[in-house]
């Protein structure tokens, strides 16, 4: 805690050697009234979660498995933008600590050379028109060896240490993440999401690409060309422009 440069995020820290999911622990704390900026970190997760009940591989000591509790004055409609905001903060931190060039794949992945190094899972509790809390979960493969990934994700996942060719200090990266995420959050709170979304676009590897979209209720293909003010991905198809607020996108190799 002495090394923290953030003033809100990480002022209350819950550290676990092993936990089912840091998001689950953070949601419990948040429901019990913990302050904004509370974080949960774990050496390992035995029930790490992705979106749509998918799993998240979280081996001990090799990653940053982190959840942050925010109580933003945003509307519940802004939840999707919290994921984009987190992606911008994490990208800044990775760039400053490692210097590897990584890019954001809409909506919640950070990739290096086409492989996932970070996944983000945002969960929200809202009543009526107000957010009670948002939990932003971030999984960063920091020092995972390539051969340690389970076979089903070995071809789509990699780590920062593989990318950089050396071990990365988890504490340096964690403190950078907290201060960058805090800065991006302040920016969104004070000036709205426009600048955050601009920065997201600059770091995006999705825009300009041919993509296949696996939406909540339909699948289609087209060219991703922009995100709108809600953070939805805009895609040119033969039928016109489609707008996707939630779903999976795969980028076609060019
Ligand atoms: C995500 O979901 O990418 C969100 C992952 C969020 C994980 C963090 S860790 C801290 C916090 N606590 C939690 O319980 N969760 C959050 P999605 O886009 O649905 O991607 C999930 C898919 O990524 C899986 O189905 C696998 O194919 C792949 N995957 C699983 N573990 C991975 C890993 N360590 N690295 C790269 N890819 C992985």
Decide which structural class fits the backbone: alpha+beta
What is the tally of helical segments?
A: 5
Strand content of the residues, in percent? 25-35%
Fraction in helix? 25-40%
H and E order? EHEEHEEEEHHHEEEEE
| CATH topology type of the largest domain | BirA Bifunctional Protein, domain 2
Global shape? globular
Count of separate structural domains = 2
Question: What is the highest CATH level, the class of the largest domain?
Answer: Alpha Beta
Query: Which radius of gyration do the C-alpha atoms yield?
Result: 17 Å
Strand order of the largest sheet: 1-2-3-7-6-5-4
- The number of E-state strands comes to 12
- Model regions low in confidence, pLDDT < 50 over at least 5 residues: none
Which whole number gives the mean pLDDT?
Answer: 95
Taking the sheet with the most strands, its summary is: 7 strands, mixed
What key phrases describe this protein's structure?
254 residues, five-stranded antiparallel β-sheet, BirA Bifunctional Protein, domain 2, globular, SH3 type barrels, binds biotinyl-5-AMP, alpha+beta
What do these coordinates show?
It is a single chain. It is built from five helices and twelve strands. The protein has two domains: 13-202, 2-Layer Sandwich (BirA Bifunctional Protein, domain 2), CATH 3.30.930.10; 210-251, SH3 type barrels (Roll), CATH 2.30.30. It is of the alpha+beta class and 254 residues long. Helix content is 26%, strand content 33%. The structure holds biotinyl-5-AMP (BT5). Biotinyl-5-AMP binds at residues 21-23, 45, 48-52, 54-58, 65-67, 108-109, 116, 119-121, 137-139, 141, 153, 157.
């Amino acid at each position: 805690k002495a090394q923290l440069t953030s003033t809100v995020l990480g002022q209350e820290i819950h550290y676990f050697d092993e936990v089912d999911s840091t998001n689950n622990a953070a949601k419990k704390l948040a429901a019990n009234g913990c302050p904004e900026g509370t974080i949960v970190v774990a050496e390992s997760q035995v029930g790490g979660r992705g979106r749509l009940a998918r799993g998240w591989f979280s081996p001990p000591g090799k990653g940053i498995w982190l959840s942050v509790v925010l109580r933003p004055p945003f509307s519940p409609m802004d939840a999707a933008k919290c994921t984009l905001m987190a992606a911008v903060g994490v990208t800044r931190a990775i760039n400053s600590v490692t210097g590897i060039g990584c890019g954001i794949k809409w909506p919640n992945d950070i990739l290096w050379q086409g492989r996932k190094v970070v996944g983000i899972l945002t969960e929200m509790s809202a009543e009526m028109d107000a957010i009670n809390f948002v939990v932003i979960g971030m999984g960063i493969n920091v020092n995972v060896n390539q051969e340690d990934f389970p076979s089903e994700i070995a071809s789509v996942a990699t780590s920062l240490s593989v990318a950089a060719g050396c071990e990365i200090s988890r504490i340096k990266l964690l403190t950078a993440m907290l201060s960058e995420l805090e800065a991006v959050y302040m920016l969104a709170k004070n000036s709205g999401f426009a600048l955050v979304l601009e920065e997201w676009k600059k770091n995006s590897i999705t825009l300009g690409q041919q993509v296949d979209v696996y939406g909540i209720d339909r699948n289609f293909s087209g060219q991703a060309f922009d995100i709108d003010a809600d953070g939805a991905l805009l895609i040119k198809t033969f039928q016109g422009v489609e707008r996707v607020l939630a779903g999976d996108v795969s980028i076609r190799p060019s």
